[in-house]
Amino acid sequence: MIKNTLKILSLLLFTVNVNCQVTMIVPLSSIESDYANGVYMKDLDNELPFYVDTWEGVLNNKKYTFEFVKFTQHLFQYESGGDYSYSDMLKGKFKVVDLATGITLYDNLAATDYEDYTIFLTSLQSGGSFSYVDAQNCYNTADFQLYKVSGNPNQLHYNQFRLISYAYFFDCPYENQEDIPMFLPTGDLILTRQ
Known about the structure:
signal
């Protein structure tokens, strides 16, 4: 039974890979959203590797550790049917430690699967724009910016945090988004490459 299931899954994956071919390569920084089926939004300017690393910073007696990883040519299948695209993606995970008590308040640094990363790059326009989605807490969503610090290739300026939305209609026990636990820093801080 297990062998047959593995064979079927392998055949399906092979079929998807055979049928999903790159039809056009465009820069990741492109803002066009209506591309032909099979487009590959590639990091042609090699901007993502700068972020790929472990970064740490302290704010309000809490130590924040961020890790960013680049996923190359990630396949996106759309629910509408056979449409698909590829993109180089920058995803992140993080940990928060209360320095006064030594207690870890949040930690998803063990994430290894694409879907388990809670932070993702949304745009490279004017610094890096990122979104955070907390699927464990009402799909609470926030945005923030990471700017390169001029003259220091080992620092990022984290700022412009803002809450975006949450799924109040999915058995969410919180009436207001501000009541949902938020583990990202809500103020500005400098992150240093480790």
